[in-house]
Amino acid sequence: MEELLSHEDHAHKHDVPMGWTSSDIPLSEVARHNKPHDCWIAICGEVYDLTDFLQHHQEQRNSILAWAGRDATPMFDKIPGRFPSKQWMEYYMRPEFKTGKVGPEKPVDSIIMELRELHDELRRLEGPSKEEIEAVKTAVKVPGKTDAPTLSEESRFPKLAEISAGKDLPFFSRAEVAKHNTAEEPYMIIHNRVYNLKPLLGSHPGGDDILMSKAGTDCTKDFEVFEHSEKARVQRDRDMLVGLLSILAGSVGPRGLFGLFQSAP
Ligand code: HEM
């Protein structure tokens, strides 16, 4: 047990986590490396450790961190010049950043899983580490580019409040939204609201593929990474808003008791 915890304490770049070989990293493990000082990204079956890269390419910081701990394959090469594109990777990302290949999820001993969860929880309770504080301090702001938004969407775009005011909307759980992942009813969560993107298919400037690859999921991060304009947000709330997200796991909409537990839009 001590060995496991001490290994995890020092888990950082180039470490291959216990229980996996470097050519066999499940996405659940990639998901744990989602911080500026410990940043892995999966793309097209390969896992990249971009921790060092981040330190030296501060101007790409926001677009890289948006994918930290995630599989960026659905977006690969969709927009040349935007991370992650082939052009971008050939130019900036060298083979030495490859940490391994994406592998299948393997049954892991339940005690190890429990210890991992406890350890992650402890790290969250401890708050930011020295490295995390340092990584944030060294961030460079790029003129003309927005920093990762910290204000609520409505504070940044006050016009939005008028659009949804007075609408009587049903509540959806994440599980319910996940079921709406077809081209007939492509639902998405953006900023704790639920949208049916059907009217956008065929006319979305970013293309339908991107939308469909995200149908049924929470796309808040993706929506912000592409710095959608106020016009896009107004169109979204005016034509596609179908509900609000209930924060109760497994809760069933519409309305009823769960409305009480609605998360702040
Ligand atoms: C209701 C939701 C959405 C609406 C109304 C919408 C609308 C738009 C509009 C109007 C643009 C043109 C640029 C602008 O005015 O901002 C755009 C661009 C784009 N959108 Fe969306 N979008 C939505 C959701 C998404 C999502 C969830 C993704 C990603 C998963 C996405 C990816 C993109 C991309 C990649 C571009 C092109 C950006 C670029 O060229 O830099 N959009 N969208």
TrEMBL record:
Keyword Membrane set for record = yes
A single GO molecular-function term is: metal ion binding
The keyword Ribosomal protein appears for this protein: no
**Membrane topology qualifier:** Single-pass membrane protein
Where in or outside the cell it occurs: the entry states: Endoplasmic reticulum membrane; Microsome membrane
- Gene3D superfamilies in the cross-refs: Cytochrome b5-like heme/steroid binding domain (3.10.120.10)
The UniProt keyword set, sorted, is: Electron transport, Endoplasmic reticulum, Heme, Iron, Membrane, Metal-binding, Microsome, Transmembrane, Transport
**Positions of the Cytochrome b5 heme-binding domain:** 22-103, 169-246
Q: What is its main location?
A: endoplasmic reticulum
Pfam families documented for this protein? Cyt-b5 (PF00173)
* GO CC annotations, alphabetized: endoplasmic reticulum membrane
User: What superkingdom heads the lineage?
Assistant: Eukaryota
The Swiss-Prot or TrEMBL record describes its family as follows:
Belongs to the cytochrome b5 family.
Designated name of the protein: Cytochrome b5
**Which organism is this entry from?**
Symbiodinium microadriaticum (Dinoflagellate)
The record's gene field reads Cyt-b5
